[in-house]
């Protein structure tokens, strides 16, 4: 794998320079408090920080006479948004210990000291992280974050060999992103014009959907009814005819853009998959009384009740109906294409083991096969020993296979889905299923899972997606790893400090931070349900049924030589139906553009159309959030 020809490195350059790092630093310093506050206030996060930062820095740097290179632009895009959830999660863990929900389930005394500090330490009333009792609860997930990050990078290299170098999957969303980055840096006049017009349209749309909402919430004036987010819900209409079914339209322009970019057949298959689960399957399960959530009570206790929104239907149908089958479907969709095309896997392994390749233009390597194995096994060892030490009653025969196989399976399935459809789908509740099916009767293993110590955090799909961007923009992937290693510690430290300051201003949750007051109790309820062993939710046979049904479909399509992939179908089955409907609307719009303007023009500019719309909407979101943050910060001042 480490063997390369001279042409392998041709054109690939480092994107980590002082200019790109200053841009990342700017984004972390300016947007981290806004992200944290928005999460506390609404339960959501700012989207589009990467695009806003890139657009701003590109224009600022251009004034110096030395425009940003495409490599620098990629580094700015990839790493100007860093994780902020870790610090908030620490507060959540302490709140979980005090929650009335946890006390109601009888689990308050079972929360271990290494998960969150005991109440007698006083950290909850003092609202501070600066206390010795926080050392272990902070260090455990922090070490796991960096170790799993390096292991994910290593598995990303493996996925790159399979899905980029050998299979050459399209990665449609990465193509769109890279095309937008190149347009911003290379300034091609025609493409810039199309991009600017679409950016303006996206900005206006984003102002209507998001900015007005932020402004009205900030000033507490509701003159114009806000557009529903994340979707327009039609369940209240169809429930009289199709009880249990869901129907709606996603209001974020991102999903329309996905429909513009993906092939029409792919979008249609995703819609069909979503229709099968969210509409047809849910409806049949209700009218035929297929699911009884409480058999001990006389009659059939359906998972559905009249008046349920799409959100509730999605949560409850996933929990009681689709959790196990979708695990099997996702596994089958990720693995069956490799099983039915063994040559792809064989060629990829040959490249990794022997070195060299038949691919003429490839991404320069950053580590040997030995380094990949080293990073992976360090993560396996850390996870295994942490679980064994903190939850000694959890069976070792479950830990080792899970730690060895799960990250590879997650990487292969997620990357294939992203490579073909642009959307990745995780395996829902896979770790909870493993613990439940193991027959484990303790509690400590659950808290190791929620401390980020399990290997499900190791997934190379995101890194492989970045490697596709690096291939298109000719960026050194080593510079991407260095950018992550330099930026992540700073982002984590600042997020910890910002959360500490916001926590000092008011308790979390509170009237000032109502968002977490809505979503944290839901999260705590589910966690307590898992600890108390939910009956009849997980059935291994249904995982097998899901795997076999999707596998059988793949074999039939292969034997009949029908050029249809099972991956979009599987992605759709795990996607809320409003999203696939909006994607289908985007695909139909694309069809009419081809019909009336020309297919050649649309193929040349569709990446710019989608990129402009998304960037414009994201800028509107960032502006609205910043205004809301400023107004609310001024309101909380004591003078």
What tags apply to this protein structure?
mainly alpha; 2 strands; 639 residues; two-stranded antiparallel sheet; globular; disordered N terminus
Share of residues in helices? 55-70%
If you average the pLDDT, what whole number results? Answer: 80
Strand content: under 5%
Strand runs, count: 2
Give Rg in angstroms.
25 Å
Pick out the low-confidence regions: 1-8, 356-360
How does the helix and strand content classify structurally? mainly alpha
Principal-axis shape? globular
Main sheet summary:
2 strands, antiparallel
Q: What's the end-to-end separation, in Å?
A: 64 Å
Order of helices and strands: HHHHHHHHHEHEHHHHHHHHHHHHHHH
Topology:
Elements: H1 18-42, H2 49-62, H3 70-79, H4 85-98, H5 100-104, H6 123-126, H7 135-166, H8 172-186, H9 189-219, E1 231-233, H10 235-238, E2 248-250, H11 253-261, H12 264-287, H13 310-340, H14 342-354, H15 369-390, H16 396-421, H17 430-437, H18 444-449, H19 461-473, H20 477-505, H21 514-531, H22 540-559, H23 566-573, H24 577-596, H25 599-635
Antiparallel strand pairs: 1-2
Helix pairs in contact: 1-2, 1-3, 1-20, 1-21, 2-3, 3-8, 3-19, 4-20, 7-14, 7-15, 7-16, 7-19, 8-19, 8-25, 9-25, 11-24, 11-25, 12-13, 12-23, 12-24, 13-14, 13-16, 13-22, 13-23, 15-16, 16-19, 24-25
């Amino acid at each position: 794998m480490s063997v390369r020809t001279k042409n392998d490195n041709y054109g690939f350059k480092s994107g980590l320079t002082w200019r790109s790092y200053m841009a990342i630093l700017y984004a972390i310093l300016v947007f981290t408090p806004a992200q944290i506050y928005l999460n506390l206030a609404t339960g959501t996060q700012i989207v589009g920080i990467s695009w806003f930062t890139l657009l701003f820095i590109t224009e600022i740097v251009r004034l110096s006479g030395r425009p940003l290179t495409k490599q620098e632009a990629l580094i700015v895009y990839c790493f100007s948004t860093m994780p902020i959830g870790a610090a908030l999660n620490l507060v959540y863990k302490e709140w979980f210990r005090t929650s009335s929900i946890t006390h109601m389930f009888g689990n308050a005394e079972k929360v271990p000291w290494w998960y969150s500090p005991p109440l007698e330490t006083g950290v909850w009333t003092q609202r501070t992280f600066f206390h010795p009792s926080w050392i272990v609860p902070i260090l455990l997930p922090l070490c796991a974050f960096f170790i799993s990050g390096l292991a994910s990078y290593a598995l990303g290299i493996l996925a790159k060999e399979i899905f980029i170098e050998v299979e050459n999957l399209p990665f449609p969303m990465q193509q769109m992103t890279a095309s937008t980055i190149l347009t911003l840096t290379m300034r091609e006049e025609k493409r810039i014009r199309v991009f600017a017009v679409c950016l303006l349209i996206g900005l206006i749309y984003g102002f209507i959907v998001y900015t007005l909402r932020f402004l009205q919430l900030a000033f507490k004036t509701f003159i114009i009814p806000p557009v529903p987010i994340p979707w327009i819900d039609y369940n209240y209409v169809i429930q009289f005819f199709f009880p249990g079914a869901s129907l709606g339209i996603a209001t974020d322009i991102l999903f329309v853009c996905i429909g513009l970019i993906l092939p029409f057949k792919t979008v249609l298959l995703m819609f069909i998959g979503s229709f099968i689960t969210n509409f047809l399957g849910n409806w049949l399960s209700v009218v035929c009384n297929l699911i009884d959530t409480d058999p001990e009570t006389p009659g059939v206790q359906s998972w559905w009740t009249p008046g349920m929104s799409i959100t509730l239907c999605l949560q409850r149908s996933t929990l009681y109906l689709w959790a196990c089958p979708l695990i099997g479907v996702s596994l089958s969709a990720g693995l069956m294409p490799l099983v039915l095309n063994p040559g792809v896997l064989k060629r990829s392994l040959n490249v990794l083991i022997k070195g060299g390749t038949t691919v003429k233009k490839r991404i320069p390597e950053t580590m040997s096969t030995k380094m990949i194995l080293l990073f992976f096994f360090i993560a396996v060892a850390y996870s295994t020993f942490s679980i064994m030490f903190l939850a000694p009653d959890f069976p070792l025969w479950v830990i080792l296979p899970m730690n060895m196989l799960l990250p590879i399976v997650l990487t292969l399935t997620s990357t294939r889905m992203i490579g073909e459809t642009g959307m990745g789908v995780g395996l829902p509740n896979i770790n909870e299923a493993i613990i439940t099916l193991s027959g484990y009767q303790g509690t400590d293993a659950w808290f190791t899972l929620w401390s980020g110590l399990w290997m499900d955090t190791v997934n190379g799909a995101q890194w492989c997606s970045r490697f596709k961007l690096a291939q298109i923009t000719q960026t050194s992937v080593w510079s991407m790893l260095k950018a992550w290693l330099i930026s992540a510690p700073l982002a984590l430290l600042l997020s910890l400090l910002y959360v500490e300051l916001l926590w000092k201003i008011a308790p979390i949750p509170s009237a000032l931070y109502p968002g977490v007051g809505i979503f944290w109790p839901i999260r705590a309820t589910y966690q307590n349900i898992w600890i108390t062993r939910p009956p009849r939710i997980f059935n291994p046979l249904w995982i097998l049924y899901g795997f076999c049904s999707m596998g059988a479909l793949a074999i039939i399509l292969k034997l009949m030589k029908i050029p249809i992939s099972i991956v979009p179908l599987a992605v759709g089955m795990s996607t809320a139906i409003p999203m696939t409907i909006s994607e289908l609307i985007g695909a139909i719009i694309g069809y009419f553009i081809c019909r009336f303007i020309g297919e050649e023009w649309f193929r040349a500019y569709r990446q710019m159309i989608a990129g402009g719309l998304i960037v414009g909407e994201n800028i509107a979101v960032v502006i609205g959030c910043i205004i809301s943050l400023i107004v609310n910060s001024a309101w909380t001042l004591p003078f």
